[in-house]
Amino acid sequence: MLLRGTKIVRIADGHSYAFRFLSMFSSPCLQSSSDQTMEGAAFHISSLINKPNWEHDKTLKSLASHMSPHLAGKIIGLHSNNVELGVRFFKWVCRQSAYCYDLAGRIQLLNVLVSCNLFGVAQKAVVLLIKECDESENGIVKLMDAFDEMTEMGFRLSYPCYSTLLMRLAKSNMGFVAFLVYRRMVNEGFVLAGIDYRTVVNALCKEGFVQAAEMFCCRVLRLGFGLDTHVCSSLVLGNCRKDNLREAFRVFEKMSKEEKCRPNSVTFSILIHGLCEAGRLEEAFQLKQEMFEKGCQPSTRTYTVLVKAMCDIGMIDKAMDMLDEMITKACVPNVHTYTILIDRLCREGKTEEANGVFRKMLKDGLCPGVVTFNALINGYCKEGRVISAFELLSVMEKGNCKPNIRTFNELMEGLCRVGKSYKALFLLRRVVDNGLLPDRVSYNILVDGFCKENQLNMAFNIFNSMNSVGLEPDGFTFTALIDGLCKLGRLEQANGILGSMVKKGIFLDEVTFTALIDGHCKVGKAKDVYFLFENMLKNRCLTTAHAFNCFLDVLGKDYKLNEANAMLGKMMKYGLVPSVVTHTILIDGHCRAGETTLSLKKLEQMKQAGCSPNVYTYTIIVNALCNNGRVEEAEAILFSMSSFGVSPNNFTYAVLVKAHVKAGRLDRALQIVSTMVKNGCQPNNHIYSTLLSGFVLLNNATGAGAINYSSDLESRSLSSEENVYNCFSNHVFRLMDVHHALRIRDEIKKCGVPTEDLYNFLVVGLCKEGRITEADQLTQDIVKHGLFPDKAISSIIEHYCKTCKYDNCLEFMKLVLDNQFVPSFASYCWVIHGLRNEGRVQEAQRLVSDFLRHTGIEDKVAVTPYIEFLMKEEEYDPDECLKLIKAIEQVNYKERPII
Fold first, then answer.
1. Handedness of CA 722, 647, 582, 562 (dihedral sign)
2. Are the C-beta atoms of residues 174 and 140 closer than 8 Å to each other?
3. Do residues 112 and 145 make contact, with C-beta atoms less than 8 angstroms apart?
4. Residue 898, helix vs strand vs coil
5. What interhelical angle do 806-818 and 790-802 show, nearest 10?
6. Dihedral sign, CA of 441, 447, 450, 451?
7. Is 32 buried (19+), middle (13-18) or exposed (0-12) by CB count in 10 A?
8. Per-residue pLDDT reduced to its tens digit, 235-268
9. How far apart are CA 269 and CA 243, in angstroms?
10. Cys-Cys with 468: which of 186, 244, 299, 889 at CB 3.0–4.6 Å?
């Protein structure tokens, strides 16, 4: 299983001696209990690393998993004459030991080496640590502080250490610190090479210290070094970073006149990037063309900069064209190029296209990095496709690409999106198994997830645990709790949380206040809302009309239109411009009050104010006119929408279709459907419900009752699709016969509508009324004809599972699979849970294998543990969740439990 209750260390037969040392390695307090035992362990492991291919020894890996820095230092000391072996072991143990995995543990190991006077190994270890240190400022500063402390023990950095440090500082955009390191090198008597001077210039320019870089160049020239392309390109970079493109081009022009400083592809790429950052894309492309004219081929970096610029402004098609041009020009895209495209495609919801780019990347022999995987995993999670996301995680791990905390955060967020917050919480076990620690984002995702599922107690448990692991809740954490409490009507607690935010000095933003205003509006506490508005003004966070809109919406629904209009005046007094949502809310309020003519005037005033109505605004007007029997006016407005640049959506058409069915004009309703299809809009469940009701009326003696029911629906304001559907399912599906379904199918076909959605609607409705035999037969017929109504299939499987008819369910699934269709993951879960509960474990396991085979998952072995984890039926157990939270807290105290 993915998430184990315990982790057992397995060691190959013949190495039972290793068990004697295991308990000693697992706890720091036991390491000091016996120096003799420590010496024995050191000698034993020392003998193991003398063997060939010792890095792959399973026994050694097991012993090293919890090896302390002190013991590792002793082992290296036993090989003091073999510096190369000592460095190899240092590098290896840093990747194997839970105690040496993070930077603090590695620094501790380095200190042990220095205290043992193992300076030769320490010097090379420093170079390794600098190279492997992350690019964040915090990590490199910690490392440099440690170097300063080691000087008190007589340790001095060598020239390779300093030179590597300069390059790392330049890469991390820490120009001023790089200059200070240069000063120290000079003071310690080191003779710097030309590459070191170039690195310092580059570091200063990357941070925008152009004048300092120029002064430094003067000093370098006095030392006898000359300017070259690298130095001048750095100066161009510095000016671009300072948004001084004029000066950057001046340096570029001077370079073009000097033989030793001729611009190369790097120089051009820097300028192209500067132009793209300034939004001057046309000039950037002209400069690329100039490169060709001057005989300088654009590099991968050049194209990647342009690809990113295209993606940043949403022109993904042109970015893909740029990729094709790269390949045509024999310029090979790198991981960064592909990652930019994958990320943008995922942001636009084009996950399958992103997956195609990912596969092309693999085909080109490139190894995706953690950033690439994270981008695609995030794309899948946003679409709720957690299976595909976990499959990618298994590909990552198999390819030795170690997931980082962001990877797991995205997976946890994906699980929360599909209502599986407790699964997201248990995924923290995997985080710890990977040597990682949850960060603030991890906790925020969980708090928000449990709040959205109304599991406020667990959300507060996670919230209270944050301080125990050294993490301070931020505005997002508090706002998630406030929003969750407000949605449940627990306003006193929400106000208490707001008070805690104030005490902690956390800035109260518009999102926080809007959540509170929304909560108070829903329970009718208008006075408190006015108080909150005053506080928003006091905190200077009333920047948009959103909070006002929440209040106006409540006033409109309560028919308090005078107060709503007064609120609109206040809103404008505060300098806020009413948005299209604001105007639409007010128009809706007048429509609810039966003031349709006034609503039409408001619509015209809205246009005159320069605020274009959106499709929802028009839909509200159309709905109001239809409710008042003014169907011809409603139809005229609907068909004039396109002239104002607004296309009707399926809800707008649904209102008109209902009006005609209500009036007994079923033929006209079908004409409206045909028109909407021609205009590129597909019918929804509202329309199918209305048409079905119309067909039932034609053939049923109780038609008058149905008309009254439809009339009742029309008297409502615009309601959600689900609410409308539920209303009809309780009435129409009791009255309909199969021939009604066939009649509506034939008419819909004439309109040019694909029938899958209609079948989904019909079968789901029949299942809800318990008419499973008819639903099953209808679905079997359409599946045999090559159609795949996914919701219909899921609905039938769910119904069979609820009634424990698993044999019928398995027979139905076989029919679906035989016709080359695969039921949903949720459907498989229902059946597998049911079979396991009935003791039919082998059949359940066979279904898991069938799912892996039919869904085309390539590496079934790697992904099976994750599938099992997601399929496992777990009751929500607060006690188990609390135990896990406490175990995570232990990690903060360096107890390093293996979960």
1. negative
2. yes
3. no
4. coil
5. 160
6. negative
7. exposed
8. 999 999 999 999 999 999 998 888 788 899 999 9
9. 15
10. 889
